[in-house]
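Worked example

This section walks through a single chain of length 252. The input is the sequence exactly as stored; nothing has been trimmed or padded.
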Amino acid sequence: MTQLLSHTIMTCLLLVLSMPAVAETGPAKAVQTGEQLTYDISWLNILAGTAVMEVQADGDASRAKLVTTAQSRPAISKFFPVDNRVESEFDLHAQVPHHMIFRRREGKNKEDIEYTFHHQEGTVTTVRQGTTETLPIPAGTQDLISCLYYVRNQLPMSPGASLMLNVHHDKKNRQVEVRVENIETLEGVWGRAETAQVVVIMPFKGLFINKGNIRVWFTTDERRIPVRMKAKVIIGSIVADLVNGFPSKASR
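Given that input, the structure is written out below as tokens.
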């Protein structure tokens, strides 16, 4: 059960979407430097942790640094502390990641994983526990964090719209279908917002130990803020709800 709680904290944001990119002519509006979104993550109505997603400047106007952190709540930390951090250098024009570092701290387990994407060569180099390995990747491959920003930029938020997508994780290239199911009005600390309910059809069991498809609710305005994420697990569901960072202009 402690393993499930650790996945509750981080993976709800990192493995909720898995999708590739296609080059664009310019940066999309949905990804903007300075954005910071904070989520409460719960399991069986128990507040288990907090996650923060940020878009930081990267010293180059054509790039951004996507940073996601997740920490367990004090009550959970007494039994199984979680303090994870992922940084991804994202090309705003080509809509692909260049470099990602995953700093995982879960209980007594500590691990740092580094990915360097060579899109022109069609390869990715992974450094893990002192071992370096280079593997082939399809064109437009995403990492575990850049995929969420890509879908905000590329997927039309209208019922029936879909994409077949790819992500590289744990030495494997995985294809996932993403589809807009319907338009729904949600209420939260932000007030009311019109959202597109997007289902992510997972063909494998990843870090999530998910027991079915994953759903994400994006606002239908130009910012396409993910206000809620939900996935069934072995027992119950994991839910991530936005609690801070919702721009007022996206409210309804």
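What to look for: The CA atoms of residues 11 and 208 lie 6 Å apart.
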